[in-house]
Amino acid sequence: MGLILIYPYKNTTYIYNPLSNYYFLMKKKYILPLLLLLQIIIINILSFFPEFVERYYSNGLFPYLSKAERIFFGMFNFSIGDLIYGVVIILALRWFWKTRKTWRKNYKDNILRMVGAFSVFYFLFHLLWAMNYHRVPLNEKMGIEKEYTPDELIAFTKRMIDRTNAIHRQIEKNDSVKIVIPYTIDEIYSKSTDGYKEIEKQFPYFAFEHESIKSSLISTPLSYMGFGGYLNPFTNEAQVNYNLPLYGYPATTCHEMSHQIGYASESEANFIGYMASIHNKDLYFQYSGYTLALKYCLRNINKIDEKKAKSMAKLVLPGVLANFKESEAFNKKYESFVETIFKYFYDNYLKINKQKDGLEAYSKFVGLLVNYYKDKEL
């Protein structure tokens, strides 16, 4: 039994029972964990209604949220999102340190607090961006297929080789010299929106406003993790790894920008990033887009027929291959067990978020390319 206090105040008698207040506080700690369960149920139900998500979230609420974030966080020339992550990690470590001696007696309360914190994270993650995982697939929106035959892939890759070689020759007279982009990283960021302005004319749903592209403060860890960039879903900042070989930087930047406008699928982001690159009037951006696509095409052929992939690689100019070797050298430089661990977790993260192919989703954009160009010129 709790102690019941009775006290008068302005001719009225009030009763306070500390025990009942204790029970209220005890129940309060279950609210956020229960809300997490409710959120998971609601989101899984909504995943069966992509048209609803497309209309009311991806084309309804999200554009307002994302533009507001890009306008605000775009005012800063450094990554606010990376700083926020740093602060959160420090506070989490501090909490674990302070509670290290309480786990034996209060492990249930500590677990509930962790689940409660994750509940808030989960809510903000989906409200601010992640509901886009459940929108209408891009190929359905554009009216194209995703599947292709090996013969279609080979025929398309030959066209891609010819186009990439032609762009290389427009930039560099010597076929054996790799392309070196003459721009600074900031100049690449400022030019990246030009391609989006061009594709918006044909595809209004690729419209992009208010640049908020940042060089990640954790670029070196990202290099060891095997990532070229990422979108911060809480600040809508496009984070790019500044260690990347510069010839591929424009396409990577345009890829991350596609996430900013609500395309969560990695295959779709690759496709949109490619489109924004090759429609840019700048030849270096075009080269970056075409080399991105060619690399994935050759990689996909290699999975089917290694000999065919090697014979087709001989059709590629030595200067283009020199750029590919630049990427290989970069990957080898930062190769470590850390990449294996993080890619395992990211692969499963993608699968949990309705991308059943996991990391293979990146190469799936080749299917979008093959089918998009069936009746079009490169």
Summarize the SSE layout with pairings.
Elements: E1 5-9, E2 12-16, H1 18-28, H2 31-46, H3 50-73, H4 80-98, H5 103-128, H6 138-142, H7 150-171, H8 185-202, E3 213-215, H9 219-225, E4 229-232, E5 237-240, H10 249-260, H11 266-278, H12 283-304, H13 306-313, H14 318-333, H15 337-352, H16 365-372
Helix pairs in contact: 2-5, 7-12, 8-10, 8-11, 10-11, 11-12, 11-16, 12-13
What are the key terms here?
378 residues; 16 helices; mainly alpha; DUF3810 domain-containing protein; disordered N terminus; 3-stranded mixed beta sheet; transmembrane helix; 64% helix; 5 strands; DUF3810
Structure description:
The longest helix has 26 residues. The protein is 64% helix and 6% strand. The chain has 378 residues and is mainly alpha-helical. The radius of gyration is 25 Å and the shape is globular. The strands form two sheets. Strands 3-5-4 form a three-stranded mixed sheet. The chain is built from 16 helices and five strands. The chain has a domain of 235 residues. The termini are far apart. The relative contact order is 0.12. Keywords: Membrane, Transmembrane, Transmembrane helix. Pfam families: DUF3810.
